[in-house]
Amino acid sequence: MTTASRFRVSTVVASLATLSLLTAAVSGCAVRVEDAAPAPTASIAPQATRATPAPASTGAPTSGASGSASNSAAQGPVATVDDDSMARLQRAQYTSSVSQSLTCAGGEVSIDSNADALVVSVTGDCDRVTILADGAIVLLPAVGTVEVQGDGNIVITASAQQIELTGEADANLVGWEAGTSVVRDSGVMNATTLIR
Length: 196
Hints:
This protein is an alpha/beta fold. It has 2 helices and 11 strands; from the N terminus they run αββαβββββββββ. It has helices at about 5-25, 85; strands spanning about 50, 80, 100-105, 110, 120-125, 125-130, 135-150, 155-165, 175, 180-185, 190-195. The strands form 2 sheets. Strands 3, 4, 5, 6, 7, 8, 9, 10 and 11 form a 9-stranded parallel sheet that branches. It has a two-stranded antiparallel sheet with strand order 1-2. The protein is globular, with a radius of gyration of 27 Å. It starts with a helix and ends with a strand. The relative contact order is 0.18.
């Protein structure tokens, strides 16, 4: 056997010995990955925190159409959003950019995928608004219930009795301008707040 052949054989043997030692060293190690249950409410902004709702002045939620500034605390999970997120909840900056206008017919309206990435304005007397769109900016009057199923929406309502973010609804920012809202959030990375 030549010197070059012996060198190759000894290199291969050394490599196999090193691999065997590494295999033996990590054979006792185990890695376990588990999916964590989604948090009930998360914030859009990294520095956002969960706020404790203040007690309502009358003891009962105010209806969406007749909310008052003195009864402006939300019931249910509410995130305190940072200044940048709060700035995105100012209705005035979007009113001149409305690309789709809808009217509540029969007290209900659904905003579907045709409104993806659009600015949508809803008018009329709404008992229920369902948002299926993704990436939309939705401007609402006072409503009974806002249900969000889409992702990445900004929703601004004059007031709402209930705000429901379903399990499919992720990364939405929802704010109400007056009154009290009961919030139910089953999604991930959603933030809901009274607009100041």
